[in-house]
Amino acid sequence: MTGGSAGIGRAVCLELASAGAVVVVHGRDVRRTQDVADQVNGVAVQADLREYGAVQSLAGEALAAHGRLDVLIANAGQGWSGPFVEMSDEEIADLVTVDLTTTMRLARMLVPGMVERRTGCLLLVTSVAGRTGVAGEAVYAAAKAGLDAFAESLRLELAGTGVQVGVVVPAAVDTGFFATRGRAYDRRVPRPVEPAAVARAVVRAIEQDRAETWIPRWIRLAAVVRALFPAGFRRLATRFGESIRSG
Q: What is the pTM of this model?
């Protein structure tokens, strides 16, 4: 479980443990990661995924903990909100690394073992931002869109191998994510959901081999409207994005 020390990740770890899973908890903060691992009687693995060598270290420690890994839940994420032109090169690189390429590299290291055993699951936590685009979150949305495309392509590639691939697509979630991205959540709709709701959706997605799960379910309408009525959707999105440009 990447990004398991807080927010959605912590809630998923608790839900997995309740379902009987043996959990390997990844986080960047040593104390918080160990605290969650203690709560679920699991193993803590600390790694800063912005660092290139951390991915191989994380995969190695996760495998060493129990000799195999049956489910990889890629949840670690980094946000940034504000005018795109104000992002530094380092901020762009860090966000894309944590939110996209790290998951690809972990999958490349861990999926072969699942294929060999003909069982396993790769579950990615994406975002509605990756399906619709969001003003002020251009790089974040692009990285999440990349995760969606990666998951769909890999699901097709692994069909018949016994390895399932799926995504959980949440809208706003009531976590500390918004406090660290540089801009508080200020929209009235959609209202942030509790991390526990996302956690339950993650476990259901694994148990039922769901290709995609939306939280809340109605938020999928945004992507449908965008696909069917793109011009109208863009007018609405532009209107609601004015606060980013004027703030």
A: 0.89
